[in-house]
Structures are given as structure tokens and as C-alpha cells.
Records
---
Amino acid sequence: MSTIFREQVLSRAGRIAVLMGGTSMEREISLQSGQAVAAGLQRLGLEVTTIDVGEDLIGQLQAASPDLVFNLLHGTVGEDGVIQGLLEILGVPYTGSGVLASALAMDKHKCKLLWKQVGLNTADHQILQDDSPWQHLISDYGKLVVKPVNGGSSLGIAIVDNAGALQAEYLQAKQYDQQVMAEQWLSGPEYSIGVLGDRLLPTVLLQTEREFYDYEAKYVDQTTRMICPVDLPSEQLTVLKSLARQAYDSLELSGLARVDLMQGADGEFYLLEANSIPGMTSHSIVPASAASAGIGFDELLLQILECEFQNKMGHLH
């Protein structure tokens, strides 16, 4: 970014309120993301207010009187369209996707239905109920991944290969969300691609010694590796990137988002989910991907702001 353009972005940004924390299961990760971003914005010389979102959010926003909200709330309320709707009513511009795109990305079931409808590869899945035919599902699929429909940070996710475990993990996942689904297990490896408007960040390969890329692998385990750039034949990398691009566009996401994908035993790539507010912690995928392309954390924040001004607040002149 040229010095002149950089100055334009910074002068346009005005006062920024960083929303973080909240009440979802992902509160701790959101606080880490919010603190990292707030520190970066301050290093850029911007006026920043941090808001740990609670009951008096409207009052806190009115007191801060921001020109832009940088939303780092992960999980329910922050990532599912609820906060976005509130900010629309208040007339406050905000980073990331709008109400419908946020809600769709958060709901893995409806998101996958949409992807299937437009012909994008995603693993088969079933919504689970208290009386689901547990043995029948295992007979049909063999190995399954149990997931809360609305949730992130891999909370409440488990891999099962027998009826007893499937029912037990369903009941466990219900602690995280009322809706739980079982998805066809894919053998891996797992990839993640950050999307910022019309640009794709470098593809990341996720490697963990754990059974899968779970909460511990993401935020605790020091042996987890994020490999970037990835060692894939160019044709396969093209397919992977195209799938991520189409996934983002089909949901009409905007600003920064992250698309997670997995390779099956058949060699095909399958969409797992789209994250409309990806983590921005020291352990997070998007900052690591950007760094591999020579984009430092603060520069990434500048590019996010630039993307927002182009999308929602009019082009810079």
C-alpha cells in the first residue's frame, strides 16, 4: 500500500470501536482477537475504544460514538447476524459481512444446503434428533463427525464410529447448541483460505498430532503446524482456491472471512464451513497466512479497513 493511500485509509477511519468478548462459548478467543486488533490499530495511530460486549452495548456504543465498529465477536450473537442487525439499526458502519451472510455462514446446516444447491462440494450430513437411528447412521456412513450447527473454535465436535458414541456425543454437543448435526468423516488433510474482498490470502495446510484440528489443537497444543505455502500440484491448488472463492461468493460474504476445506480419501476437496469473523489471535490462521505473503499484522488491519471503505463506505478518492 502506497504511503499516500495508507494516509487516506487512516484519515478516513476516524474513531474505531472494537467489539469483543460477549457471552458465547468463544468469549476467551474473542477477547484475544479483540485485544490483538485494538493494539494493532493503536500502533497505526488510530483512536480506538474497546468494548467487552454485555447488556449495555447500545449505551457503550453511544458513549464511544464510533465512525466504524471493528467486530471481533466470535460465535453466537456476534457472528450470526444479531449484532450486525443492531448496528444497521443504529446506522454504524461495521467490518465484515452483513446480516444474512453472517447468519447463513454461522448455520452450518443451511450453509451446506446452499452450497449443495449451487453445486459446490461439501460432505453429506444429517441433522440429529433425540430419536435418530444411531446404528442406521453408522451403517450408512461408517465414521461421522458430530458438530453443533451454530458454533466455532471446534467446540463440541467429536469423531465417532459406533452407535453408542454417536448418541453420547450428540448429547454432549447439545450443550453447545440446540441443533446438532452429523457429517460424513473426511480423511484429510485440512486446508484453510482467508478471503479479503476480491483477494485470496495464501492457502494454509493445518497439521495436528491430535485426532483432528480441535479446540486444543487450535489454541493450546504447541505441536500444531500451519504450513504455508502448501505443497500441492498447481491444478489441485487452483481447484482448492476456486472452491473457497465460490463458497465466499455464494454466501455473499464481505470483508475478511475464512473458508475451511478438507480432502477426502477420493482426492476431492470438500467445503467444511465459512467463518465470517475469523480469529485474529497470535495462534490464528489468517494472520499467519498473511505473514507468509509478507503482510504484517498491522498492514493486514489496514487492508481490512481499505476493503471496508470500498464495500460499505464508498470508495476512497
---
Amino acid sequence: MTNTKVILANRPTGAASKNNFDLLTEDIRELKDGELLIKIDVISLDPAMRGWMNEGTTYIKGVEIGAVMRSFSAGKIVASKNPNFQEGQYVSGLLGAQNYCISDGTGLSKLDISNGKLSYHLGILGMPGMTAYFGLLEKGKPQQGETVFISGAAGIVGSTVGQIAKIKGCTVIGSAGSDAKCDYLTNECGFDYAINYKTDDINAKLKEYAPEGVHIFYDNVGGPILDIALANLAQGARVTICGAISQYNDMGNIYGPKNYMKIVTARGHLNGIIVFDYLAQWPAAAKEIADWIAEGKIHPKEHIIHGLENFPSALQMLYTGENFGKLVLTV
């Protein structure tokens, strides 16, 4: 048997491109005691990958040159010499962008695919869904009747935040980069309002849709939209910083907020969310989200690309806004 894997060939300057990656095929070695072999079926493509390609350590160490590109992946165990894992079980974890992965079981999650199709466990029931769940509920602490504004709202994290906020009785406003994505937010996700950041005056729209201010701002984008949101905070507002996808390709010249003193005048809170802090709570959160999906309260959307050879071009879609829904690569 052979394994084909996407390796990080060199570190990108600016946007990642196919020149930063190589495909390598090699024989799969025999399993040692305590190990298992996983056939990977789906690979998650996430904005955090751009940061993982940098040298050094932030909340997680950068991928080494020549190593398999880090990714959350899911698949079926096809051989096992580990008594805690059986052939035929589905698992997920940081298994990398490859066909097969040998694991000692560390960091693996056993999946109940009766809760939803396998790809859901990399999206709505996986890291992005958990980021939305804990970022909103633990950091934002929404109360019924409050107004929630979400940047990058048509992505898997933003759309999930908005749908959970609606379940909690909030008024929800989202920004996205096309009329089609705005229609998706209001017609499928149940948002109250959607703002096309490319054609609308965001500040004017926020004043119209949230005349008493924004109680929770969930930021996936960073840059100028963070400044606009800060200028429209309600008293006691909570700001959750999830990411800054508008800045990832040039972190050396990151746009810093000019309106940060609005946190003071709003008597507000500015928080960051790293989802790995909540690993022990993931199973219960995934069960609750799965129940909401079954009840028709949350509507996941996926954008599926096939083939490891398309990994580089698919990854680029995250930063150009081409994807529509959770971006997943099938193997």
C-alpha cells in the first residue's frame, strides 16, 4: 500500500500558492504495537492553515518544511494494533492532508456518524462549529433581545454563530461579500439582516439595523470592519476575536484598530477564542449542535472539492472568498 501526502515545500510570502506544496507518494510501513492505520476520506480547509505555515510558535507550532501539511481530517480505521481502537471505527483529528495516517491514538476523536455525515465532523460538528459555539456562548454570553453582529458571516463559523444566536433569541446581523451570500444568510440561516461589505456602507447599515448599538460583535475578518463595529458598540458590549482573515497574507503589516477606546466608553469586553481550550467540552457541544440540525434550527452548507492534487487551489479559495460554505476536500 502507498500513501500520497501534501507536504509543505517552503513557507509562503504573502498568499499561499501551489508552489509552497509538493505531493509525495511513499510506501506505508508496518504498524507497531499500539498503532492504527486510518484511511482518510475528508480533509478540512480552514483559515488557520495560513498561520500554521509560518515559522515559529503561536498557540501551536508551525508546520516543519518537508512535513505533511497539518489539517483536521476524518476517516475510517482500516487496521489496528491499539486495543482502544477497532477496525471500522470512524475517527478525526490532526491527521494531515494525505490518503492514510498512522497514529498511536493520541488526539483522536471517535465519531458517531449517526449524528451527521462524516464531513460534518470537520465543519459544523468539528473545530469550526466548536469555535462558533464556544466563542459565542462562553465569550459573548448572549442574552435574549440583544443584537449580534458577525463579520465573515457566510463562512462555517460565522453562519453557525448567527444561527445559534437566533436560537438564543437575539437579533442577528451578518456581513458577507456577495448578494448571493447575503441572501443565504437571511433566507437559509435566518439572520435578520445581511450587509454586503463590498457594496453597502457598513457603518450606515449598522446604525439602521442596530440603532441601540451592537451587544456582541463576533469578528472573523479584522481590519477596518473591526473599527466600524467598535464605533457601534452598545454599553456592556462583548467583542469576540476569532480571526482576521483579511490580514493573514500580510501579518507583518497588520491593520490595527483605531477605535479601540470604544471598548472603554462602552464599558465592554474584548476577548479572544482558541477552540482547543474547550476540547473536553466538544462532545457535549457537538451533541447539542447535532440536535439543533435535526430539529431544523441550524442549516449547514458545504463546498466540496475532490482530490489531493487540488489542495493548494482549494486552500486559496478561503482567502479570496470563492468558497460558499464549509470548504472540504474529499480524498
---
Amino acid sequence: MNDINNEISQGTNEIPFERYKKETKHLLPLPNLEILKSYVSSPKEYKVSKESMIKYKGKKYSVPTYLIGKSVTVTETEEYIHIYYTTNLVRKHKKDEKFLNYNKDDMIEILKSDALKGFEDEEIETFIENNLDDYDNL
């Protein structure tokens, strides 16, 4: 390799080692490993259950009911779980030790579409306020 890299290249009419010395001034460092992984790996998909939730790392997170049966992807930061449908962010949950992680709007939609069908929004919100702590304690 040393012999070849010290000879004049037919393609550039330059010595590769000499050209490399000039070009290194313009090279940037490689991005961190997480960014590199994003180029070669596909995000894992999570199917939204009938209860309008996904299970991620042993915990459940709510999403809007229109996503029931569809697949979403998840990214996370130190503080938040971000849930995407296609490329759209559909829900952001603060990381917590709770098993069930509901967004209040999702909870209203979920109850309105099933268990509390026909109830007024105020009645559903009162039900949530009175019972959400019980869900957390399960």
C-alpha cells in the first residue's frame, strides 16, 4: 500500500499521500455513534393496542385513538418519550416510573369511544380526575 500511495495516480495525476495531506485540512470529524446508527438502522415499530396505548420498555403510553391498530415509532431523550406516526410527532410523555402513562386528551378520547360512550365531556373529565390516581396505583 505504501508503494501505491507514493506513486502518481492515473486518475488524479497526483501522489495519493500528498493529496491526502491537502484534503485533511477540510475533513470534518465523523458524527457521534447515535447519528451514525440512524443511517443504517430502522426504528422499531410498536403497534397501538385497542386501548390506544403502546408498550415500550415495560410501560404503557397513550396515543390518540385514531392510531388504534396502526404502528408508531419511539425516540427518547433524558426526560421524554416521543411517539411518531410516520414522521409526525403525535404524543410526548414525560418519563416516569408509572406503568400506565396517559395523556389527559387521550384518556378522554379513549373513555368517550368506549366505556363512557354518551357521557358529556365534563362528566368524563370528572371521572378521570376522580379515578386517574387509582390507575396509577395499580
---
Amino acid sequence: MRENRVRTLWAEGAAVINGWLHSPSTWSAEVMAHQGWDSLVVDMQHGLMGIETAIQMLQVISTTDTVPLVRVNWNTPGDIMRLLDAGAYGVICPMIETRAECEAFVGACRFPPLGYRSLGPTRARVYAGEDYAAHANDTVLTLAMIETKTGFDNRDEILSVPGLDCVFVGIGDLRLTLTGEAGLSSADATVDAALDDILESARAHGVKAGLFAADTDHAIDMMKRGYELVTVGNDVSLMASAAAAAVSTLRENMD
């Protein structure tokens, strides 16, 4: 079965530099996949793509060594299984708040006897190999998002679920529910302390930890703290910031 390089990097003690896709575009996905990201997430929650476009985006990512991941729009087993059948090598599930929700999520990603995923890896066997079904349980990644006060309070129960590979912190929603203020920054002392608490719990349960970072400096700080997967921006925000900077520079130098 095709290697999951995210697992390999983690086994080597390295952090994963993760990219993010909001635009419903195979061209955007292809360009991003060629920029050196270790993994790329097709975001079905806040991105603008439908499932057919998402599958095509997974296909173009697969022309590179970048690991194709998806974030589903909710903890819905049928959607999770279908995207895994389409060749996603890992699933990020938003808004996990209880152990039962995490068990349902992980179970949808694992074939029996470890879960209840239906056997039918239509495209996955093309991307990963004919032996996909025999090795998928050890290869496909499960990433549960903790991003609410309830999820944070239940973090130890959530992170103790067998088969969970990684906790992924949604700083925006976590900050909103903990402080009432929106934003990706963890400058707030309450949020910053929560990030340390989640990381400590992840280590205690043998689970990797990832998160959205506000910017590259923040991402570097989080990696130094021990977070093993960091995301900065997405294809749309990166394009917008580069375009805005170019326009600003030109306007400042106009006669």
C-alpha cells in the first residue's frame, strides 16, 4: 500500500507542514500541491467545493507526493466513508465534543473489527494499491477537532478513544467559545493556556496534536512547543494576501 508520508514524518519526529484548500478548483489544488506542502486538506466544511469537485481535487493532489486529506462538513459516517473511498488518506472531523462522537467518527474510518466502515474503496485502491483494504486501518489518519469549550472540557475522554491519531485544534472557534471573541490569534492568555492543556493531554494519550496558526511566526512557535501538524492560511487567503501586497507596493511607488 502507498505510504502515508504524514505518518512517516511523525515516526521520524518531524512536524508536518499542512496546506489548506477553500477554492473549488482543481487548478488551485494542483498548484498548491506542487509547492512543497507535506499534506493538503480539501475543506468540505468551510470550503466552497461539492463532493464531485473534491474528488477531482484529490486526484490532482495525488500526482505529487503531497498527502491528500479532507475535512468533512460534519460527523456523518456516509460522507466520511465516501471520501475515504475516493482516496483521502486522512479525515479531519469538526466539532467533536464527546467521547461518543469521537468513537463514531473513528469507527467510520476503520474497517471491521476496528470500526464499521463499509468495504468498497473504489478509487482508494487505485491511488493506494490493490492491498488497500488489508492496510487501510494502519494507514488512514483520523484527526478530531477540539474547538469548543465542551470539547476542551472533555478532551481527555475524547483523546483516549482507540484509533484516534491526532487532535486538531480549531483556534478560531475555540477562542470564540472560551472568550467570546473571534480570531485565530492565541495571544489571549485563556486560549494560550488551553493550547498547552490540549497538547499535554495529547501527549498523555499518545495522540499527535495539530492546529490552525494565525501566521508563520505563530506556526513556528507552536511547532517549538510540540505541535506536530501546523496549518497557515489557505489557497484563497494566500492568493489574496500576495495580490494585496503587490497592489499596495505598486500604488506606493506610482508617480
